[in-house]
Amino acid sequence: MNEPDVLACEFENPVMPYLRQERLPHIWCPGCGIGTTVNCFTRALTDSGMDLDKIAIVSGIGCTGRVAGYMNLDSFHTTHGRAIPFATGLKLANPELKVVVYSGDGDLSAIGGNHLIHAARRNMDLMVVCVNNFIYGMTGGQVAPTTPLGATGTTMPYGNFESPFNLPFLADACGAVYVARWTVYHVKQLAKAMLEGLKKKGFVFIEAMAPCPTLYSRRNRLGDGVDQLKYYKEKSKIVNGANTKDVGLTFQGEIVVGKFVDRERPTWLDAMNEHYTQHFGERFTPYGVSHAKE
Amino acid sequence: MHADPKGVLTGIHFIDGDHAACEGALAAGCRFAAGYPITPSTEVVERFAARIPLVGGMFIQLEDELASSIAIQGAAWGGKKVMTVTSGPGLSLMMEHVGLAAIAEVPCVFVDVQRGGPSTGLPTLPAQADMMQVKWGSHGDYEPIALSPNSPQECFDLMIKAFNLAETYRVPVFFMMDEVVGHMTERVVIPEASEIEVVERKWTAKKPSEYRPYGTDESLVPEMVKAGDGYRIHITGLTHDERGYPAMNAQAQDKLVKRLVNKIRDHRDQLVDVRADGVEGADVIVVSFGITSRVAGAAVEAARRKGIKVGHLRLIITWPFPAKVIRDLALTAKAFVVPELNMGQMALEVERAVSGKAAVLTLPHAGGTVHEPDAILAKIMEAAQ
Questions:
Q1: Which structural domain, as residue segments, surrounds residue A291?
Q2: Are residues A191 and A212 in the same domain?
Q3: Does residue B31 contact residue B22 with C-beta atoms inside 8 Å?
Q4: Positive or negative, the Cα torsion across A165, A166, A171, A173?
Q5: pTM of the model
Q6: Considering the domain boundaries, does residue A172 fall inside one?
Q7: What is the ipTM for the molecules in this complex?
Q8: Is A57 within 8 Å of A76 (Cβ atoms)?
Q9: pLDDT, tens digit, for every residue of A177-220?
Q10: Same domain? A77 vs A140
């Protein structure tokens, strides 16, 4: 069969307007799941009807850290692990922005773990998308805080013996108001979670499981990207409202997916405004009020 | 333009250097500060936290100095004038983000109330031992600006200058206080807002279609926008082209890094700020900065009473180093004396500028207190021989 000529296609790919097309092709490997999550994100942006000039995206470092650079939004590619505090400053300085943090499991939960837990505790109004591929891809396949027991990475050449984080449990325990996990097999659900995340006020944590065929799958003899999707399809169980304590992941074991947490808490900014209004009365002008009224 | 009166506490005050530094920042238009507690700097942000709700702005105490030093950069891209405040151990943690501010050209002020080091060192006692760290501490090539106040009044006055320089050149500016300057209480006069000149951010007037985030004119300083204004900027810590897009090659690196250093080096003459006292025709010149300049001033007076022709050159802007000023003085002076609360940091710069044309006598001090005036006097007398 001949390869289709994509340039001759009469319909524009609906994702294209959301991308900095002059930056393509992207750096991601064939079979990588990050692009699929970006697809879902663009669907969520479309469905949200939000003004794209008022959405900013912040990434850290790593394969997923490159997402910000491809999005045709105000976009910031920051330092390793520090996307959340950068986003915190951006959001507080300009509360009319919806600020999305888009980064990988190593960036967000290892080097950036401290910022993740504190931003959740404060209920900072950020949507965090954590693409979890269980490994450090950009640097060549080292183990991450998410690598399952028994899986192998270059820095655990005889198999990982450290217990991994259960990221939804961590985010839940620290106070996130919305916590979900989907895989890149669940594109509709992932896009819907991102849409809900964009509309939700407060700290949103969405874990998106994604294959890394080049490093994680190959090193662990799990086949290619399609084989991982088959695994996601066969071993996933949707349990909305699951107790996050029970959703830890094991090597090629069952994957509990779903929306686990959806609750209300005052955001840091709303709490500050309310507290200072009580304390100072009319002398205090609430900060970023137009947003607070939404 | 003039300062926003909301941030200006006009009047005569009796406050310490940390508090005066905070007032300087508010007068300069700082409306976002992030920090993590650390002695002897914390009073700066404590006052900011108390004052800012009614000025209109934001303070957030973050989980560490890494967070603080990058949250301010997010806030700068959100449109605010920003600062963080720390001391040695915290400054060490901030170094990666000094580099981000340098390469992404983020106007921001890092206040460093210096204490004895290395490591935890002497948390409650002074030093001036971070001078080389702020020059060289983050990896790669860049040119920071640093100022060294020696009194609470200067903590106010020079802080405004620090913010103005950060905005003018879009670089991280270091405000190099020390424990003594931070904690000494003196008279501080804060003028009317209409008497305070502040530099507004270099906002672009270009349309989004014409705007290049890192395109520059002969000033080498690009125009800025803020997130949310429809420009859809991309900002990265990677080497980038004028569009802000990553450019992973030697040519892009050459172009960017040369511009980053030349935007300061080409303006070195405008960035000289020294206080010269009797340096013309002096045999001996004392070069000092920060708290040490006050002790050195007493020693210089005593030496003059002994008939020694001694001048005093006080460095206000310590980086970029005013090498040309010192090189010119080395044509006539016989010797330079460099007292500092470290084991010989800025003395290296003096030696480099003097370049063998005159003697350079160092007077290092490990910190924990200030020099005895007699020690500086003895060194002046030794230099005069």
A1: 267-294
A2: yes
A3: no
A4: negative
A5: 0.97
A6: yes
A7: 0.97
A8: yes
A9: 999 999 999 999 999 999 999 999 999 999 999 999 999 999 99
A10: yes
